[in-house]
Amino acid sequence: VYDVQLTESLFTAEVDDSVREITIGDLLREVAAEHPSAPALVEVKPEGDTRRRWTYRELLSDSEKLALALSTRFHPGERITVWAPNVPEWLLMEYACAFAGIILVTANPAYQSRELRYVLKQSDSVALFRVESYRGNPMAQIAIQATQGLDAIREIVDLEDQKAVYRAGEQASMLPEVAPGDAVMIQYTSGTTGFPKGAVLTHRGLVNNARFYAGRAQTHQNTVWANIMPMFHTSGCGMVSLGCLQAACTMLLVTLFDPLVVTRLIEQEKVSTLLGVPTMLVALLESLEQQPYDMSSMEMVSSGGATVAPELVRNIKKVFDCTFGTLYGQTETSPVITQHHHDDSLEDICNTIGQPLPQTHVSIRSVDENQVVSLDTVGEICVRAYCNMIEYHANPSATAETIDGEGWLHTGDLGTMDSRGYIRITGRVKEMIIRGGENLFPAEIENVLLEHPLITEVAVVGIPDDKWGEVVACFIRADAT
After folding, report:
1. Where would a tag sit more exposed on the chain, N or C end, judged by fewer CB atoms within 10 A?
2. Residue 440, Cα to own-chain centre: how many angstroms?
3. Are the C-beta atoms of residues 311 and 385 closer than 8 Å to each other?
4. H-type helices in 190-321, by residue range?
């Protein structure tokens, strides 16, 4: 825990750990040289079977082979969209694009034609790598429909067709020089306004953010991590994949999240670590009530992506009997901003989102004047760090609205900071409910409601009202029992 005594809501970056100047590709080479025979990747099929396995030497070999093939068909700086669930080829594409200087564009496998077309067009992608289908979504058919009239798309490749994936093209096979500050990925973030925006992320940001996160999550070489987070999100392809890489540990890549499959997997493969959003963790707890499995191998569960209710924290710690920590971040910051330490108190874990990661400046600023506010005062959470995105791709106005002239990235989230640098989320700038001139924060109301034993999930919003301006409305999911 950082022992600080702040006088205002400004946390100056701690430098107890340095930012490594290394690319994703060089990192894989480094780990494969040091731990060639260590188990790196295990494919977990939808029904729960573990199929293909890679050591770090094999993962490097396949990634470099794919990078060389891609380099004969695409130029450094070009963009390729990967549209697939958590299949091993997704990770191979991530490493191969990093080696080849190609920018990987991520796409949610649940997208329909209009959404996919938007991402392909807005990102200026020149190719689409996809699977046949996903949860009944006919992706091969949608891909044809979505790319009609997009002349920039030179290839549509089936990721399950090895011959097509590794095909050699016309150009000479040569890997370029790649720098840590180069763009490596574009991740689309929907946010709460308008069309999705493509956050352009760097090798430096993704590599170091994953290392700091994995370190605070106490990841080590004997960790067995079940990756249930989607690879199209920074949590799956960044935090978990690159975090496991830097610990040289084993990652089980779960193709589709199914709570019964995951709980059985924990028992069979002696899984020690999980990252999941609260909805996933609720599903795991409900599944274990119906079908108990041995959870004794578990060492660490972490969660983020939404406010984690205190009741859920207590239940996870009780059922999994392991360390639990929440974290906070967003795509634009590669993604983690704050995270709990393993020895934080239950009170802090339940009520805060932890302290900032190393090398990360965080401030709470007034929404109207962009000034640092007093301690324990609500304002917008802002970040200045090595992990901030370069820009929103081809969207200078949105970039200027998000990153101010001093380099502070405005998250759009409201929160408070105490004298120890621990932060609490109180809502979104655009979700704050103003009732009769009083500011109400949905997260605070949700946490109170979630203390009721018959409520599993809740969402609070403001709706227009003639008398009060806005009033509170609650959407509630009752306990299944």
Report:
1. C
2. 28
3. no
4. 203-216, 234, 241-247, 259-269, 278-290, 310-320
User: Number of folded domains in the chain?
Assistant: 2
- In this structure, the answer to whether residues 436 and 357 fall within a common structural domain is no
The CATH number for 52's domain is 3.40.50.12780
This prediction's pTM: 0.92
pLDDT per residue of the chain (481 residues) written in tens, 0 to 9:
999 999 999 999 999 999 999 999 999 999 999 999 999 999 999 999 989 999 999 999 999 999 999 999 999 999 999 999 999 999 999 999 999 999 999 999 999 999 999 999 999 999 999 999 999 999 999 999 999 999 999 999 999 999 999 999 999 999 999 999 999 999 998 755 568 999 999 999 999 999 999 999 999 999 999 999 999 999 999 999 999 999 999 999 999 999 999 999 999 999 999 999 998 999 999 999 999 999 999 999 999 866 688 889 999 999 999 999 999 999 999 999 999 999 999 999 989 999 999 999 999 999 989 999 999 999 999 999 999 999 999 999 999 999 999 999 999 999 999 999 999 998 888 887 878 877 787 887 888 899 999 999 999 999 988 878 889 999 999 987 6
Structural domain range at position 441? 431-478
Tokens coding 255: 């193709």
Q: State the residue for tokens 């009769």.
A: 436
